[in-house]
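Handout, page 2. Input:
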Amino acid sequence: MYNMKWNGSKPLVFITVFIDSLIAFSKNTQGRQEMQKLIGKMVGLLLLVLFLNIYGYAEALMRGREAHEKYLYPIVRVTFNNSGGSGTIVFSKESNGKFSTYVLTNHHVISEAIKIEEKWDSSLGKNIKIERRSIVYVEIFKYKNLGIPVGTMRIEADLVIYNSMADIALLKLNLTEQIHYIATLVEKDKTDNYNLFDETIAVGCSLGFPPIATPGIINRKNFQIESLPYHMSTSQIIYGNSGGAMFLAGSGQLIGIPSMVAVIGWGTPVTHMGLFIPINRIYKWLEEEDYDFIFDSIKTEEECLGLREEKIKKSKENISK
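Output:
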């Protein structure tokens, strides 16, 4: 990432030096062709420097509409009964004439929507465990003047897959219309293409409020918790951010899900020590569950879910034998 941060006077200084050089050169050189060559080279250099200066600002942090569309609009609030957190819209594409929309979140955000019961099965002659999943709700925010929240569209969502140990869950909206603002997903082979001190933006529904963005930097990678890798950022997070998004500031690409924050004493959060699930671990899980169409544009939802159904069917047949 090229990150030349100049103050506003530097290009003007360069232009002044450039003009002074031309005046001095014209007084001591007789050949007009040589003058034209020099002018061409110096103008080219000036344009290059100005471009790199602008590019450096753009890479450091997005601004305006682009920032809102990349960082803010894909973030939703996820609720069940009196509990909740955040989520990130990661997919909204057409399949069989209807749009399918999926939201990534943490398992602990929607865990109360999952109930495991034991019931007697007379045909097997023993108690069996039955899982029941309740509907959860996803709120998509509406804004005016780019960033002022004015309300939400509350939509029912099904919990399609989850992993309690990995603390990841995927929701599917009960909606057939397209959602236009989707998080930008990093390519699979570039999921670890960032380092310490790279700038980040965390966005989530802190304390249940509409999405709030906080800037920071990557300050730790591969922090092991229960044998699972997490990364850490100084982008401040607090309760309610769980399930939201951690973005690379320059590209706006989703690099993880904020999941927990360090605490001291009786639970006082250290907000600049926010841990997030890295995107490569999320991709691996989606691939294992045959939901890799979420990030792999070559694959289709129909193809992947068909393969998943076949695997589940074979697994049930093996259990019954």
